[in-house]
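Title: Prediction job returns without error message
Component: structure pipeline
Severity: low
Priority: P3
Assignee: unassigned

Description:
Job completed but the reporter wants confirmation the result is attached to the right record. Sequence as submitted:
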Amino acid sequence: MIFVSSLILGLGAGKAGAETNLVTFAGNFDLGTRETQFFESNHNAFVGQWDTRIEFWLPPSRAKFSWGPYLRVAGIAASKNPAWENAWLAGPGAGIQVYPFSLPSFRKSDSIVGQILGPVRLFGEYSRLNYWGKENSWRPNNQKRIGVEYWGAFHVNDAFPAWLEIWSGVWRQSSNEFDSHYNTQIFAVSSRGGLRIPNADSLSAFTPYIALESSSTNKNQYYWENRLNLGGGLRYAPLLNNDPAESVGISRLVLYVEYIKVSTYYHSAAPSSVPDHDVRMGISMSIGEWFR
């Protein structure tokens, strides 16, 4: 991925141990504006998204192997009214998760495998859905998902010259906002990476970056699910000294403005009336050990 070879040189900031709390909290939040949402010209919506987990860690202990059940609360809200922008996406949900590369040998600072694959998360969950408004009462009200995810953030809020963050996943999903028998396998990735001027005080916090987004499903007729987006932007990422493994404080914080354009559709193309770009600006943050 973007700048991986440079970033591997700086991955040795991990700790050999991990905090051993039996219950932890982690969350990821985004609030900002969207020009089109690849939906309609001049959509110009304020959109807020949140995804939180209360995590319960089972024996032998989180420090020795991270696994256990969790409760999830997630949603999206917008200043416009499409159902997919206004819903409890897990209101609430429950599941079980396993971090297969969380053994002590992978936590050592010299374990390249652990530092790269540590964010791998296996999960299975059941969530209640609620698309707001009486007009949406017919929509599916529950969803089951099972799969694997990767939430990795490397040097996003420190002084290292290169940074990278990746979310990717492969999962099976039982429903979406309009089909209770969706039953589809989904592969998706969203990645951003950039360079910063090192040791330049506040100037180091401003970084240009490139962005890649892609999703693919076996519903070839849904053009919005099968496409590659490319773009870039500028973000402000202040220096953070907080260790997400030892605190529920802010572990990732960025302010951003970016332009994203559809590079290609994998199957059916969108109608000509559908915008092929989006302009976004906002703030994104994580609490606790959401990104690893």
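Comment from assignee: result matches the submitted record. The chain has three helices and 13 strands.
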